[in-house]
Amino acid sequence: MSKTSLRTSPAEGGLGDEPLLAVEDLHVEFATRAGVVRAVNGVSYSLNPGETLAVLGESGSGKSVTAQAIMGILDMPPARIPKGEIRFRGTDLLKLSDEARTQVRGQRIAMIFQDALSALNPVFTVGWQISEMFRVHRGMSKRDAMAKAVELMDRVRIPAAKQRVHDFPHQFSGGMRQRIMIAMSIALDPEVLIADEPTTALDVTVQAQIMELLAELQRESNMGLILITHDLGVVADVADKIAVMYAGRIVENAPVYDIYRAPAHPYTKGLLESIPRVDLKGQELYAIKGLPPNLLDMPTGCAFHPRCPYRQDNCVTDAPPLYGISGARNSACHYWREVLDGDPR
Amino acid sequence: MGRYIIRRLIQAVPVLLGATLFIFAIVFALPGDPIAALAGEKRQDPNIVAIIRDQYHLNDPLLLQYWYYISGIIFRGDFGKTFAGVPVTQLLAGKLQVTLNLALVALVLEAIIGVVLGLWAALRRGRATDTAILASTLLLISIPTLVSGFVLQLWLGVWLKQVTGTEIFPIAGATQGIKSYLLPGFVLAGVSIAYLTRLTRTSLVETLRSDYIRTATAKGLSRRRVIGRHGLRNALIPLVTYLGADLGNLMGGAVITETIFNLPGIGNQLYQGVYLREQPIVVGIVTILVLVYIVANLAVDLMYAVLDPRIRYE
């Protein structure tokens, strides 16, 4: 029952109910000198128009790799996708030709990155970089494309856009750079926008402005937004649903409200408890004990068992499937009921 | 920018003075008597020798001699005369042109071959082409100019002429326009080509790993555009530095190549100047080379600001 509950299968609702984007049992592995790293191990999630999916997890949990697989910007080799589907409006992107894939990338599915300074090309003006989308994909003249770039910079609220369009990325502040990145990504009205930790490199006040901007752009255009982050504070405000990843798998996914009210996986619970709280000022911050697993040498059974306070003997031997809890909610924990109910410690 | 250029030119003054004084002192310290060398085996009249020595200030202390020399350049644009009485400027004018031609042909060959091979290797990284290119650069670096010069002279100059019946690569002299410079230019550029190939390869490989290349790919641009526009523009920046600095090296390295291919350039002249203890010739040539270095380096730094908008001088 686990995976099928994530999507509406054609049998249940017909093709009309196919989500905008559906990742299905995706596996990604990297060939390295030390062996094969299984970075993504059967991830499934789906996204509808106007919906925001937050993908949570530590570094190395596979959240960015999944996103890069959707975009088709993984370096293959060393990366390999041995199994899985990425369906965009019903078409499996992994089966498309390179050329057809390029038509989707940037135009219908766009992405913004964490560090806008290194993600923008240092030797071209921001106007050049934004307008490139119109010149290359829409065949516009330089002048028209540049006018569009100014329009977009206005839309993401960069002050004095007309004057600043000829500036270089390093001449902007961090927040402004991320706005430029956003302007570039929404240039051709994509249906899906993937934001890979868009606010991590920014000041807290600027973070809020950027999230607000993304939410507003999403409302205007009804695009689906995948927000990759490890910041639970950001998630609560904007996400509709959450997928929590650990060691290349989804360990819990649920509507945002459910997760904040009562997590159904010990890892999610640990994440929530490690948020600093004003009412606990002075007490030691909670941290999940131990370290994320080495992807080359994964623990047996449940990958989280060495760090898990709910661990029982079978956790060491049996990898839990994604148990259906209710409706759109799943947890990859044998003891999700105990986790939902309360605290073993 | 203007102020920056002026500051750099002012900085060049002590460099020039230091370099000329240094070379002047070295030639001063060389054993042997230049005036005696003038007459060869013949016996010289001591009075005449004394007059010539006095005329060329050879009896004065080093610093005074240097002052006579450098003040002549600064106040009268006079680079001095050879002991045979020919003004150094006149002697070097035509020869400088030959060496400059040679160095420029070498630089162009270096830039074209080095960059093309380097890009090719970078785009085929880890495959047979890459390995073959890297191996051949190693070979190129290991062969001294003396060997490659004579071997190519024999193969491409003599044998190829015998086989085809026409002279494609002249092997000596500078009488056939740019054709005369192709073979010596390639020999002179040899080692630099190898270094530039490796530098280009590394630079492009590094660039293609950067985040903005990932962004360019995510924009849905073709691979050709990602590499050709976004990658190349960044990868070329360090190459400009190398090429600029190498112009000076090539002019200095011309000594051997000019001798092998019998080109009447300043390299050849420098050799004779040292041999005959002709101080004005040696110091004059070195001054020219130092000037070339300084101007080339300044040009590189200014190019840098054009190529990389993050760099601004002021």
UniProtKB/TrEMBL annotation, chain A:
Main localization (coarse): membrane
Database matches in SUPFAM superfamilies: P-loop containing nucleoside triphosphate hydrolases
GO CC annotations on file: plasma membrane
Topological category with respect to the lipid bilayer: Peripheral membrane protein
Record's keyword terms, sorted: ATP-binding, Cell membrane, Membrane, Nucleotide-binding, Transport
GO biological process: peptide transport
Molecular functions (GO terms): ATP binding; ATP hydrolysis activity
Record Pfam families: ABC_tran (PF00005), oligo_HPY (PF08352)
Domain of life: Bacteria
ABC transporter domain sequence ranges: 21-272
Cell compartment(s), UniProt: Cell membrane
NCBIfam families: oligo_HPY
Similarity comment: family membership: Belongs to the ABC transporter superfamily.
Protein's UniProt name: ABC transporter ATP-binding protein
Source organism: Nonomuraea montanisoli
From TrEMBL, chain B:
Coiled-coil features, chain-numbered ranges: none
Protein name (database record): ABC transporter permease
Keyword Nuclease tagged: no
Domain ABC transmembrane type-1, residue spans: 96-304
Membrane topology annotation: Multi-pass membrane protein
Location within or outside the cell: Cell membrane
One Pfam family linked to the record: BPD_transp_1_N
One GO-annotated biological process of the protein: transmembrane transport
TM region(s), chain numbering: 12-30, 98-120, 132-158, 178-196, 239-261, 281-307
Assigned keywords, A-Z: Cell membrane, Membrane, Transmembrane, Transmembrane helix, Transport
GO cellular component terms given for this protein: plasma membrane
Recorded family membership: Belongs to the binding-protein-dependent transport system permease family.
